[in-house]
Amino acid sequence: MTETKDQEVIVKGRNFWWFVALSVIFIAAGVNNGFAQGKIRYVNSQRILSEYPEAQEIQKKLDEIRSGYETEYNKMMQEYDNLVKEIENQSLLLSPEKKAEKEKTAQDLGMKIEKYRMDKLGPQGEFYKKNLELTQPLYDKIDQIIQKIGTDEGYDFILDVVQGVVLYAKPKYDITNRVLEELNKSK
Questions:
Q1: Contact predicate 115/109, CB 8 Å
Q2: What does each of the 187 residues of the chain score in pLDDT, given as a tens digit?
Q3: How many angstroms separate the CA atoms of 133 and 122, rounded?
Q4: DSSP tag of 186
Q5: DSSP category for residue 45
Q6: What is d(CA 185, CA 54) in angstroms, rounded to the nearest whole number?
Q7: I want to staple 182 with a disulfide (CB 3.0 to 4.6 A). Which of 33, 39, 145, 152 is the partner?
Q8: Are the CB atoms for 79 and 112 separated by under 8 Å?
Q9: Do 26 and 34 contact (CB within 8 A), yes or no?
């Protein structure tokens, strides 16, 4: 098996074990009747993020920020590529000292580019921090709405279908529209 198929099997296995664990919890807690009583509902978080205007605005801002970083990165890469081509094309014409100087310049530029990439787009870079800064309040707001709906309407559980733990759910239990309505009211 390839790594990808192994990873797929692991992910499917994890989803299966999550389902088993949730089933055991439901049975142990005596909420298996909750399914019949409608005490369990689900939402589609991906749909909420794609349809909620505030989330769309945040995504647009993030796309613009990322695009700016990527444009600058691409300009730097073009400069680097041009310098490398120049060194290759002039290799026979350059003195060893001049060639070494240009190679050092290319190496320094390569390190500068890598630093820029990590500082701006890396796992702890500016884009990651800006993403967190812009999205965390939105996620908190969505969570508060879901908590409120769950409390007000007496649900035992509200699951997120995107997380992969719901293997089957009747559409009548989907409260994504309700969450979107509440979010839009709360502007």
A1: no
A2: 444 444 444 444 555 555 555 555 555 555 445 455 568 888 999 999 999 999 999 999 999 999 999 999 999 999 999 999 999 999 889 999 999 999 999 999 999 999 999 999 999 999 999 999 999 999 999 989 988 898 888 888 888 888 765 645 678 888 899 899 999 998 7
A3: 16
A4: T
A5: H
A6: 12
A7: 145
A8: no
A9: yes
Q: How far apart are CA 14 and CA 75, in angstroms?
A: 42
Question: How many residues are present in the chain?
Answer: 187
What's at 148, amino acid-wise?
Answer: K
For residue 62, give every residue at least 6 positions away whose Cβ sits within 8 Å of its Cβ, in sequence order, or none.
Answer: 127, 130, 131, 134, 135
Phi then psi dihedrals of residue 38, to 5 deg: 80, 30
Burial class (CB in 10 A: 0-12, 13-18, 19+), 175: buried
Tokens read off for 106: 């290319």
- Both tokens of residue 161? 């279908």
- Cα dihedral 86/90/91/94 (nearest 10): -120
* Amino acid at position 68, single letter: G
